[in-house]
Batch of 3 targets.
Target 1
Amino acid sequence: MAKDSQIGKTLLLALLLFVLMEFVLQVRAQLKFGNSILNAAFADSAQAVSLFVQHDGYQLLVPNIEFAGSSIKVQSNQLGLRSAAIEPKTNGTARVIALGASSTYGAYAATNDDTFPAILQRISTGMPLQVINAGIPGNDIGSQYLLYAGQLAGLSEDVLILYSGLSNDIGRLCQRSSSAKSYALPQLQAPKWLLSVDLLLKNSTNLRYVPYKYSPMPDLSPYLQQYAASLRQIVELAQQRQVKTILLAENLRSFRSEQPLQLQQQLAASALYYTPCLTVGQFSEVFEQYNRVQQQVAAEFTGVHYVSLSEQVPGGSEYFTDSVHFSAKGEQAIAAALAQVLKNTQQVAP
Amino acid sequence: MSFTSFHFYVFLIALVILLRLLRHNGQKKMLLLLASYWFYMSWDWRFGALLFAMTAVNFYCGRLMRYSARPKIWLAVSLLFSLGVLGLFKYFNFFLTNLDAVASMLGMSSHINILHIILPVGISFYTFQALSYTIDIYRRQLDPVESLADFALFVSFFPQLVAGPIVRASYFLPQLAQHIPADNAAQQEGVMLIIRGLIKKVLLADVLALHLVDPAFADYANQSSAFLVLALIGYSFQVYLDFSAYTDIARGCARLLGYQLPVNFNRPYLADSISNFWQRWHISMSSFFRDYLYHGLGGSKHGNVYINLVLTFVAIGVWHGAGWNFLLYGLCHGVLVAFERYMRNYGWFGRQTGWRWALAVLRTFFLVCLLRVMFRAEDLYHAGGYLQAIWHNTALSFHLTAAGAVALLVAVILHLIPQHYIALWQQRYLTTPQLLQASVIVLLLYSMLMLGSGEAPFIYFQF
């Protein structure tokens, strides 16, 4: 633009305002969660810019780090799990691995101690427990198998609790898959870390949601088959290790079909953001179909318990911070319910 | 590379800056030519060869026509090549499919394999633009251009390449002779046109599509008549806003680069007749068909004017797409325009004023809306199904979201507001403090993110 360009100056000013807003949001994220793009400026190594490290088919936290903000403090252990350092197993202690995704990790849990695996460890079940939180955001069921087989071997666990958290599996339903070769030239994309864009989109899902739109149900069969195969692999591996397995039903979510539709839509906002091709009703149906697969797989093996905690952890914003992630009360409720399950099923016994 | 993508605006800003750094017109044109090909090839790099072939053949036909003793031959080569390429990509599979259907109806077994080809974006637009050049030379209304690069830039100029306006060589080529960089006023006009286009596309057209039109057309059997009628009105505004948004952005980009593109719309839903509608809607296309086909057929001077009109409108319909619905769409418009012409010839259809004019506008608008069913529906079967549903599903209930209702209301109001008021508001906005102007732009950007439905393609890309 020319030096005297008035509109050029206005556009530049708009860009500055946008950058300023983004900077404010990044600072807020840094202060609240200890995690923002600002880490790139201050981190000692490139690895520490992100909380996560990509392994072959799954991801883990960067080992032995601490990311602290006013709302959330994350500490990783030597394996890269949001869990206390893993000490050698002592006699008289039952070791439990809680395998899953962001819900197990504790996406909104203030500290490691506030995640349900850590709370479970503190609840008396008749025998001292050491619960390892192996929940990592972004890991789908296939990644969870690879993590279990690759990193968690040799931990001599007694019980495996699997709450795979379907978000990462279901998220794929709406991705456009094209087998056709693309001849398009590469295009620049807006950076994914732009919080002003991300926050706006996440908090405005309901503005773009059309309750009466006709949206054909995606064909779930290939996804369900893939899910069943990975689930079987996890259970088979646990059986080989002679580990008792609890499969938590995938019905712990904020929105439930018994709620009024409008409330369901409000509560499902973040789920619909990641899976925009589904309606709220279809979302519940998808969860049900995955649950049926879980039940079938559980029935194929002996000593595998399929457990539904939907009554102990009811829907609504009291128990959930967004569509699927637990609030502090939700983390406590699920830990208490799991402790009861462990007692009732005598998975851990002195 | 969509006009609503992040990538496009990085591309545009870089181009505007680079253009300012270059001193010689030749360098600027070369940069624009390369950028235009890059823009086009961003969809599919193979399309670049097609665009170049279209350019080269018409360029040399134009030159040979001027210096040849038999220019008709070179015009025929230009027409055959250009329309042949268009026919192959756009109509050949439609022809084969129908041939197959006829063969089956006659009990003959046919083994016709359709061609697995994709329709290059904007092919109808740049084919017609290239053809206008050779026809004008043949009619001795234009001298052939000396430079292949200039002609290539005229055909490929990226702002209007994929969805018009269809620019005549006589309008654009003189602008290439001397580049006049955009001054302050031109830059303001350019940016305002782009902002206006983005508002029309992202905040109105896409919202209407998401909240009103797409749900109605996807599931018309289960929607009430009232909702279906409202969706049809919504679609009329959606297609206008979508297409005129593209034109606005194209004109705005051209302005920023120091060029001008013609106006393509003049509040078409205030037309008081179907003929008047086509004088206001996609003006560059309708004037192309008027000048090159209707007049070629004899216009009102030779042959039967009514048949000439109907044939011209059938061609307009088919230009939009290969399908019986598009053909019927053109035929209906043609018959209506011919009927109006007939009435006018006998003095039964004159210029209206007052409430008669208002009634004529309403009548024209609803006729246009009704015929749009064929334009929007997948095919004639679905168009018929939609109309049947309006007739049968007589419930009056409909559940329109607030966003959809507001978008429709704003679209209607914006269409009714006289242009000079909008220009006045625009002027007032430009005189406010720059911080306020910048804040409005940022707020608009945020609103587009919240209400937009991603990078929805422009409707006219498919043509």
Target 2
Amino acid sequence: MLFYAVRRLLYAIPIGIGVTFIVFSLVHIAPGDPISALLPNEATQEMVEQARREYGLDQPLLVQYATWLGHAARGDLGTSIGSGRPVASEVAGAVGNTVILAISAGLVACILGFLLGIVAGLWRDRPVDHIVSLITISGVSIPHYWLAILLVIVFSVDLNWLPPLGIGPDSSGGWRPDWPHLSHLILPTIATAAIPMAVIARTLRASVVDVLDQDFVTTLRAKGLLPRRVLWHVIRNALPTALAVMGLQLGNMLGGSVLVETVFAWPGTGFLLASAIFQRDLPLLQGTMLVLSMFFVLLNLIVDLVQSWTDPRIRRA
Amino acid sequence: MNIRICTKLMAGLAIAALTATSSLAQGTLRVAMTLADIPLTDGAPDQGTEGVRFSGYTLYDPLISYDLSRSDTAAKLRPALATEWHPLDDDKTKWVFKLRQGVKFHDGSDFNADAVIFNLDRAFNKEFPAYDASFERQLKIYLPSLKSWRKIDDYTVELTTKGPDSLFPYQMPRLLIASPAQYEKLGKNWDAFREHPSGTGPWKMAELVPRQRLELLPNKEYWDPARVPKLDRLVLLPIPEVSARTAALLSGRVDWAESPSPDTVEKLKGAGMTISTNAIPHVWPYTLSELPDSPFADIRVRKALNLAIDREGLVKVLNGLAVPAVGNVSPQSPWFGQPSFKVRYDPDEARKLLAEAGYGPGKPLKIKAMISTSGSGQMYPLLMNEFVQENLREIGVELELEVFEWEALRGRRRVGAQAPENKGITMLNNSYSTNDPYVAVLRYLTPEEIPPKGSNWGSIRDEEIERLAKEIRSEFDPKKQDELVAKIHQRHVDMANFVWVVHDVGSRALSPKVKGHVHAQSWFVDFSPISIQP
């Protein structure tokens, strides 16, 4: 088990480096000059070239990449050329905000998805199943940024029940789990949770249906077990698939959603990434992508380890 | 607990709640900016004029600023931290600035000549311990004439220009003066200074949360008593997404939203919001290549395109969020002059001119324009360019739009029409600021401005303009200066060097609670007279 974990951890390193190289190249292949975004609109070509030399961006791409990776390995992600703040602290702050949203949306998605999936599976082809299908198909089909805008129009603009954007009221210091902050969390949570909730519900419904058709359920029923007890067995057997899907969805949410965070001006990693792209803030973009990709690599690693722990067949493969 | 105590407690709570709400509501203005991040707060704001509007002229003062107290005329220069300035009689390259006495920075230290010299060294002296590359980057383009500087006494400085430059005062408003004492106190660190800035401006910083908000408090000791802010607090929020800004205003989350989109105007007005607009120093034109292989080397083609555009129609499409442009500046400006070529909508005349130039149904004129998807000052480029494309089709011109991302377009602009990568492209749709005579006309029209050195994208050469441009640099009488600028602009319109379309109107949507807002004809806003009606 330990050997397996170490081997998987070592695999993560080349994957991470590969991802950063792709990110680095993509940013440089994209049209537009990262330096130009830094300078006032009226800047001339001469000034751009001077600034490019100052930032070392006239060096060959591979040299730039090696320099950057060297610094990153020492924990120095550089300084945002837009804001002049250290990238590491910018990313850390944004990750914190995204985690708040991901946990909240994850809870909603898992609980609702779980309940809807079980209900639909148990009452297959009955009206309740059709209603759940309608909800889940809408959930996976409606673009979440569109849903986000719609939620704002209905609940903030028309009904004026909930704040339309931001992470909390002004002058409020850091995030706290009080009502003013939680009220800001509700709409982004719904927009973020819609798709994962639907995916979880559909997966769970399929698994429940699958398990219900199996012989052991017939046997349990024939033994005269109470329906409540039969249900318990069904859920336990349907759960592993659902858990894997939940893990993946949670992983997605932790990466932050560029679109939802932009609509709600939620200052998480998605928002950070979007502004880094528009400002062509190379160090910030590279730093954020590096942290996010490492995050995914780590999450995959954990999922693999958990799976191999529960299912020894994977470990031997 | 008996009922009386209970009632008293409830009443007390209710009063506390009421006072809490009213103290929050009284005099806090919350503004939705279009930016994705708070502009730099160290006296060298990034992110263009919007950056200067919100974290420049709020926290800091320049030596010379703009008069933003009127909406009926273009904002003029006025004394700020300098009370007067003039070039020496015997050497016009040396400018003497008398500085305002008794002004204090937010940290309590005195403003004086040393502070001015410190900030100039900070920007342009690489040997100076407090040299700040970011400051230089933001400032350099706006102070092209400055050569050297020295202190004469505690309240007098002398700035030297590279050659005689009568327009030098126009370059000064971007030089904001930050506190040297605060820099020292913070361990000589500009990053720390951005967290704890200190200027002389009418607002002091209360809180900065990166990418979330900037909160400012009034500087009650501001040196100009007339401009001490009335508000209790000014909160600036970066909300780049236009529908989010609109929703924020409609739901009462903010009181002021910058740049609402044309399709939200009706909805906002219906909800009782004011859409405030005014002609601001901005022009949205097409810059034309006048290189020998360009169809625009022929003035008849340039004029034809100017006559083909239905500007009123376009303004209608934009729901009034623009005004037609018939030159770089508006006809009310002292710099407009009296061009004999009247820019207007006259497709018949346009067709006639094209026919004279040798184009017609058998030989249509085909041109390619570079445009952007969005960008600072670019307004609604896709919609507007498609409108123009239709207009040109009506006179038999096939306009092909080559769409670039904003930064990519800026790159193509800076290298000029003659650069190999711009081959075949003869029109550039890039909007310009027209704040002062240099950026309003001079920088696009003279040979020394041909890229990579400057901004004459289309390689425009005109002997009359060159002669006038030289003349203006040595004309120190402001009135005569205006006349010369007007002559240059008149020639520019008569030569139809650009295709003029519209001016931006600096639109902002305001809640009815916002009182005292003056929409100056400027990129900038004075927040001092503004109050919030509870």
Target 3
Amino acid sequence: MAPTQAPAPPAPPRRTALLLRLLVGAQVLYVLGVAGAGYATTALGKAVALAAMPADLTTLKTTDFVRLRYAAATVPLAQWRGPAAPRARQSVYVLLAPTGGPAEAAVVGVFAEEPATAPGQAVLRGWVTDVFPRTLGLRYGLERYYVPAASPLRQDRAPRPLRVLVRIAPWGQARIVAVEEIVGK
Amino acid sequence: MSRKFFDTESPAWVAEGLITEAQRQRLLARYPPDAVPAVGLLPVLGSLLVALSALSVVAANWAALPPWARLALLLGSLLGAYAGGHYFLQRGNRGLGRGLVGLGLVLFGVSIILVSQTYQLVGYDISGLLAWVVAGMALAYAHRSRLLAALTVLIGAAVQTYCTQGLGSYSYATAALLAGGVGYLWWRRPDGLLSTVLAIGLLWQAALWVALAHAKITWFFIPAMLVYAAGDLQPGRAAGRAAQGPPLVAAYLFALGLALFGETDAYAGLLRPPVLAYLGALGAVLALSVLGKKQRGRLDTLPDWLLLLPGFYLPGGLPLAVATLVVLYAHAGSVLVRAHRSQNAEQLTLGTVLFVGATMVAFFKLTWGAFINKSLFFLIGGVLLLGLSWYLRRRNARVLAAAVPPNAPAP
């Protein structure tokens, strides 16, 4: 038990009050900036379409997202371009090229350092999850798709192949812009 | 001493003439009874329930909300929490005010995460969440609040964990912000709770680095003992000692593990960093620690460093196990002697527990190998224990005899 506490401290001086307001304002601006980065990525980013399958639609009953299994999540080890053998959890640059037609991009190579791109190619960043004897497991950070309330995915019973439209911003962020079901496959 | 105890006992003190009634009244006035907090808590609990119901409504309909509505909700609650916090702080209600500011800080991070999720946005480095740590630090300094500083340490731990596990890289900026920013706050305004939280937070940062870099785990003890040395240099003794707790526990567990598993050379091999680099770094930290201890007059805690003796350079096998056990015994003994000198009951208990722990390890370790050596070892341990107990008891009696003045009446 301590002796009686001193009375409450006086209100902070005006400079501190101003500083606190600035701090809160900066936080609000920052959150708005994150939202702005989302719009800017759509507007300025390179468009890439990726083929994927939803892993398990039943999770939609309890959560807001489905896990997407990208076709580009498993690549042959022969496509690895790096000075040393790939290690799990290493961050990598995946060079993608459109295969022509409306279809999805194909992996050209997986690089340890950022590669130069030819016109029409795009670089998506990712991480190595597993190194198998012949293949390489990759993760792009885009595996969780938060399904909007109006999406047809919410009506599906069985998983159907999807085309995931991704935009890759020049400053390195990426976002899923839309997910379409591939009809007639 | 609690107020209740004083209330019930003090009339007897007056009756026995220890204090006068006037003195009793003055003492009662000096320690006013704690205000009944239950009534003040009711509005808080009520608003908490309302907030929870609002939260569940929002969570249930989150997917149906358009992005602008989500953004407005998040920013609205962020601003509301900060505004409420500043309002209560200005009215002098520091606990509630800082609590609300802390809530605002948590909401800031939640907003960053949920807005990124709304736009399905991924970043490939930690810069997005680093702003959270920076905001926590700035708020802790602006409010000079140790609570917010401790919260920032937790946020830093979460951010670094995500960075190493999710992004596969280490955020040196986060570690530096915690060590430098919160560390400086702790240096200027030492506090027991913040010391412990900060020390554990920094150890966590160090452990994540060791795991990510696949470094020998013994390298962990260089930053850990730097935290320890900072505790030595800290002018406030209690805060310094509190900061030294976590590194010491880590070092003790490590020594215990070495005693238990060090016999196999494979394990010891995992621990051996390059001799010169490791010993050089450890020596530098030791020098810093000794300097701090000397400056602040705490050289009595120097035997803590016994736990850091790099026994793992010894060849694996019985020599290593026995050497580690000897070190554990010596450390426990040093704690006991120190506790006895300072007449600190808690330290005495700790020392005894450490001693018994070392004996248990010795028992498990040595009953598996050759029996003769073990019995000899226990003989030495038992003689040590008996000798120590005899010495401590004798010293205790002498100290007590010296403390009681010769002509004082017997109790």
